[in-house]
Amino acid sequence: MLIELRGGRIIDPANNRDSVGDLFIEDGRIVAAPEGRTPDEVYDIRGKIVMAGAIDVHSHIAGSNVTLGRQLMPELPALAAQDGQPIAPSPASWGAYATGIRYAEMGYTTVIEPAMIPTHAIEAQIALAAIPIIDVAGLVILGNDDYTLELLRDGRGGGDELKDYVAWTLHHSKALGLKVINAGGSEASSSTTANSVSTTRCRTTACHPAPSSRRCRTRWPVSACRIRPMFTATISASPATWRLRSPRSRRRKACPFTSPTSSSTGMATAAIAASHPARRVSWRR
Amino acid sequence: MRGEEAELDSALERAADLLDRARFPVFGGLLTDIGGAAAALSLAEKLGGVIDHAASAGLMRASKVMRETGGTPASFGEIRNRADTVVVIGKAPLARDPDLVEKLFPAKPGLPRPGDNKRELILLGADKAKTPKHVSATAVDSRASLPELVALLAASLREGRFDLRDTALRAKIDAAAARLRKSAFAVFVYDPAEIEEPVMHTVLEMVRHLVLTTRAAILSMAAPGNGDGVNLCSTWTCGLPIRTSFAGDVPQHDAWAYDTDRLLKSAEADALVWIDALAGDTAARPKGAAAIVLSANPTRAAKDDIVIEVASAAADHDAALFLPPLSGIGMVKAGKADKGKPTVAAVLTRIAELIDERRAA
């Protein structure tokens, strides 16, 4: 079927074009103006703009986090409308249906949900499918789960097991790509109790020496260990070319809190006290 | 329509007739999978009706408390692996899931957990008769009502002054509170269908008190009949939970007004679509109003209902359902796929098409 979009302003920077003209579409592709053929459908789009659909690579449109937000604050669209946002003051304004309509109205054809939790990928995909008109996809999160952190820390199989796990997760969650958000960061801070309970063992085996050795009898809140990311991950478009680089693992510094010299321990203590004044820290050496 | 089985097409036509004429239909029960829930929402929106779930009472309480003050939920996996003290409040959690204690207290330890305390279970308002042997459990069970027990525990936790004549109970409460204070990660488990909002608030206040010095969270039991799944589907579709009406220009939620039983008793609703099509779960069809019953077990329909026998989600077809261990929606594969019966989603979609035809004519 031959479709003509007649009289619109065609903005196509890739081809240095910004002019009024006619556009022809056949079988889902833009084609050159056909000779001697009558279009099956003609749309008079004078005064309108023809452009490549915009792509929003990071917009929270579906998934358990978004639904939780809707549960917690159904009145949010009403507040936004009061602030002068051009949005209908109804909770439906940030439902799946409205999301697709509003994005299409703004000229977007693709929107990516950037925070799909692996165990909630089905929920996210179902909610994404409820969004009309636009193309949608999700990025799946890894790096906040015990298994990934364990693989990062232990480096089992030279990194191959981690690669397999990432590839498996990407495939099974039907994700467009991977999302890594401060891997290990929230676990490091949230596993600390306010007064350290004085018994949280230093669990980072990334530290040298290992926690069971004599030098690390110190029991610190995990956040105090300042776990440094061991690897930086290079994510390319194809999971097959995904690989790890680990520059830092070979340059591990001695844990400042387990250094045998008393002066540096004293400094470390002061550092902890300064950064966590409300916490009582107790330790044994 | 007599309570006999009718030809499916004829039933669908009659159902479309009934709903086309209805001024304020209510879609109740909603014991169905996510696909069925989405179809019900779509049809309710087309007809300007109401959606409600059989397990709404508990869902609405949990919803309201979360909106008002927030909550501190922990995932099932996190509790199983890391909680050192679990307080199960009331009888409903174990009635809902008899294997709950086994699930939360695996015999083999899992991931590293904070603190050095031995894991302990405290049963508040329930007895420990069926607790597995490897679990260290204490029961605080007495003639005091559950709200009282929760309030006493909260007061003891805050080390406030209160009088209690029952010294044995006092000792148990104080011991439980002391244990909570020295926990590394305490979790309170409750069923919002069993405890009212003030009691839920008291539990959340206990969590807030504990997180000043340690870690604490709650586990709110999932509703039966895929209630949480249907509720989530409603929320992501129209921004509002169940007990929402599509009669106005915008969807409107009202937990009191859009209650199936109330709407039928007051005759505000003039038609009922009762959906009861989930494996292992059922709910009695409420009385009142002409009804279309979509059921996997049609013998539960009343005499004058239009009965459409449908497939049972997760038994006859793969289904997306809320799964408590995921604290989210997962897919369940059908036991033995019975392709003979239509799904709830297919039936509701077809009814919508028939209504469109009538309105176009």
Q: What is this structure's SSE topology?
A:
The complex is a heterodimer of chains A (285) and B (361).
Chain A: E1 2-12, E2 17-26, E3 29-31, E4 41-44, E5 49-50, E6 54-56, H1 64-72, H2 76-82, H3 96-105, E7 108-116, H4 121-129, E8 135-141, H5 146-154, H6 160-172, E9 177-179, H7 185-190, E10 232-234, E11 243-245, H8 262-275
Parallel strand pairs in A: 1-4, 1-5, 6-7, 7-8, 8-9
Antiparallel strand pairs in A: 1-2, 2-3, 10-11
Chain B: H1 8-21, E1 25-31, H2 34-47, E2 50-51, H3 56-69, H4 76-82, E3 85-89, H5 92-96, H6 100-104, E4 120-124, E5 136-140, H7 146-157, H8 167-181, E6 185-190, H9 197-210, E7 215-220, H10 227-238, E8 244-245, E9 252-253, H11 260-265, E10 271-276, E11 290-295, E12 306-309, E13 319-323, E14 328-332, H12 344-360
Parallel strand pairs in B: 1-2, 1-10, 3-4, 3-6, 4-5, 6-7, 10-11, 11-12
Antiparallel strand pairs in B: 2-8, 8-9, 13-14
Helix pairs in contact in B: 1-12, 2-10, 2-12, 7-8, 7-9
